Amino acid sequence: MKNQGLGQRLIRYVCIFLGNLLLAFGVAAFAIPHSLALTGVNGIARNLEHFLGLDMALAILVINLAAFLAGYICMGKEFALNTVISTVLYPIAFRVSSQMSGLAALTTDRLLATLLSGIFFGLGIGLVMRVGGSTGGMDIPPLVLNKKFQIPVVVSMYGIEVASLMVQLTYSSSEQVLYAVISTLVTGTVLNQVLVYGNGNIQTMIISKEYERMSSYIQEHLGHGCTLVPVETGYLHEQQMAVLSVLPARELGRLRQGIQQLDPLAFMVVTNAREVRGIGFTLDRAVRTLIKDK
Fold first, then answer.
1. CA-based, 20 to 30 A from 4: which of 135, 150, 157, 176?
2. Is residue 192 a contact partner of residue 198, using CB atoms and an 8 Å limit?
3. 281 to each of 13, 242, 244, 246, 269, how far by Cα in Å?
4. Per-residue pLDDT for the chain (294 aa), expressed as one digit of tens each?
């Protein structure tokens, strides 16, 4: 069991390491040389480099550390530990990649560079998220805002991205920003493929004697709802509850990690959810709070 746990942690660290390398390579080899507008922490760092003259790698490190501290204070130590590797590793990987001679000459076609940057971004972020890690940076503020002010994660995330692109538009051409939009679309498509073969949500059924703790973990740590379903075990004919939950694919790694810690012997089935409707998906989560209060 210890060897198995060690192997899983090793795979997780390798995926986080490779994911950050791929992400840094995509920025250094395709986005920067072709002056593509950037989103996320890269976009904010580029704005700081342009207006304040800060070194981009240093700006990324400062932004990541600030976001890490915010996540530690607002989201807790467990969440912070999942982001600490990328917080430090990505700026180093970006610095090394940006100083490698020859990367800028891989292609002279801006459209090809746009597509390749999106592919590498999606592969990098997807690898990190698939094992329950986080790329840090701009992943954290939307989660903090959601916890403190109930602002939907998607709304604040896109708000930050749009604001960053609008600032870059003051010193970039509209064509550069439009190429960035293409890159972002490609990133999202590849990211979904890496996570769960193109489906955005998953359905999971967990059977364990620790069902109450697992239910609390899904609701309190992952921020998603679940349903307790009465079941009877086939071998011992014991009556207990199973935990049924539907959540975004990006949360699968964190779910696996939490279930493993609560009950290594838990039985878990994960399937793709083709369509999900209701509270937390097509209805605002605030509705659930109102129902609970009644």
1. 135
2. yes
3. 31, 22, 15, 9, 21
4. 455 567 777 888 888 899 999 999 999 999 888 888 888 888 888 899 989 998 998 988 888 888 888 878 887 776 677 678 888 888 899 889 888 878 777 888 999 999 999 999 989 988 887 777 777 677 778 777 877 887 776 677 778 878 888 888 888 888 888 888 898 888 888 887 786 554 568 899 999 999 999 999 999 888 888 999 999 988 888 899 999 999 887 788 889 888 988 999 999 999 877 666 666 665 655 555 555 555
